[in-house]
TrEMBL record, chains A, B:
<dbReference type="GO" id="GO:0005829">
    <property type="term" value="C:cytosol"/>
</dbReference>
<comment type="similarity">
    <text>Belongs to the Nudix hydrolase family. NudK subfamily.</text>
</comment>
<feature type="domain" description="Nudix hydrolase">
    <location>
        <begin position="41"/>
        <end position="170"/>
    </location>
</feature>
<keyword id="KW-0378">Hydrolase</keyword>
<dbReference type="InterPro" id="IPR015797">
    <property type="entry name" value="NUDIX_hydrolase-like_dom_sf"/>
</dbReference>
<protein>
    <recommendedName>
        <fullName>GDP-mannose pyrophosphatase</fullName>
    </recommendedName>
</protein>
<dbReference type="InterPro" id="IPR020084">
    <property type="entry name" value="NUDIX_hydrolase_CS"/>
</dbReference>
<dbReference type="GO" id="GO:0019693">
    <property type="term" value="P:ribose phosphate metabolic process"/>
</dbReference>
<dbReference type="Pfam" id="PF00293">
    <property type="entry name" value="NUDIX"/>
</dbReference>
<dbReference type="GO" id="GO:0016787">
    <property type="term" value="F:hydrolase activity"/>
</dbReference>
<dbReference type="InterPro" id="IPR000086">
    <property type="entry name" value="NUDIX_hydrolase_dom"/>
</dbReference>
<dbReference type="GO" id="GO:0006753">
    <property type="term" value="P:nucleoside phosphate metabolic process"/>
</dbReference>
Amino acid sequence: MDTHLKETRLDGKLAYDGGFLKVTRDRIALPDGAETHREFIRHPGAVVILPLFEDGSVLLERQFRYPLDRVFIEYPAGKIDPGEDPLACAKRELQEETGYTATDWHFLCTIHNAIAYSDEHLDLYLARNLTAGEAQLDDGEFLETFRASVPEMLEKVKSGEVTDVKTVIGTFWLEKILDGRWSPG
Amino acid sequence: MDTHLKETRLDGKLAYDGGFLKVTRDRIALPDGAETHREFIRHPGAVVILPLFEDGSVLLERQFRYPLDRVFIEYPAGKIDPGEDPLACAKRELQEETGYTATDWHFLCTIHNAIAYSDEHLDLYLARNLTAGEAQLDDGEFLETFRASVPEMLEKVKSGEVTDVKTVIGTFWLEKILDGRWSPG
């Protein structure tokens, strides 16, 4: 049905294979038959965890993000390992980064964060019934955690203190869930 | 204050210079002094336009996104030209992609969509008092437009039909503005 919009791959190659980023460059046909190229990052996908405590507060991280040369406030998140189940990844990342485990998990939504140049998707999960434990950060991973209420997080979104898209979207979803207007799972 | 989190550039280079994507690879020092590398995309930044009509409906686009091999529902958006003012870019992109011009513009927020591997930011603008005109799509640009109400867009976010982050966040902001809880500008 979308043939008037669709772009078709003709051929392509891995144009850059870095330790972390891989760039694919494809020759494609546009809807009108003209040829051009598309370059994009191949990404395995990621998960985002929204850890919600009984008192309505959420667990957040402060982490330095090199491309933007500053610390960001974020929900815990991580890349999916090859073949890994997304929910298993969410449980693993929450425990590794924060030490917390949770017994009540609900998938909320999938988001696409850079559709012009990456195939990355992020799956957001709500995690409740949390128990504290010992974090096990990867080598070279540095972060600190803190708690905030959802209204405090919304204020940070509104004021521009929180700008990371997964964290902005997770906060809006949490407001809907706590208001009872949207239900998880 | 964030020296316990900060990563410091030692040296680096442009590791991949494609027609569209540019990858920087830097050697860095971690907070504990250990050395590693960071790879990321340099991006000029982009704008997103939320065109809101008097009747409460918004203008959207359907566009094929090659990295994910499907059509996405999105607000009008575009990359900032070198030296271009973001608001001027928003006005230009709205007119080029949809034909519409607007006389009432308000900056809403900046978001960062891929902080692990891109320095991209997106500035969201509310555009009101809209007048229809003739679109002037770039060569190789194919899209169609449609109108939807904000409640319809929220339902598409909830159901997973809308997954593009700028469009998810723009829709949540529009709900806040139409409810009178957040005010633009």
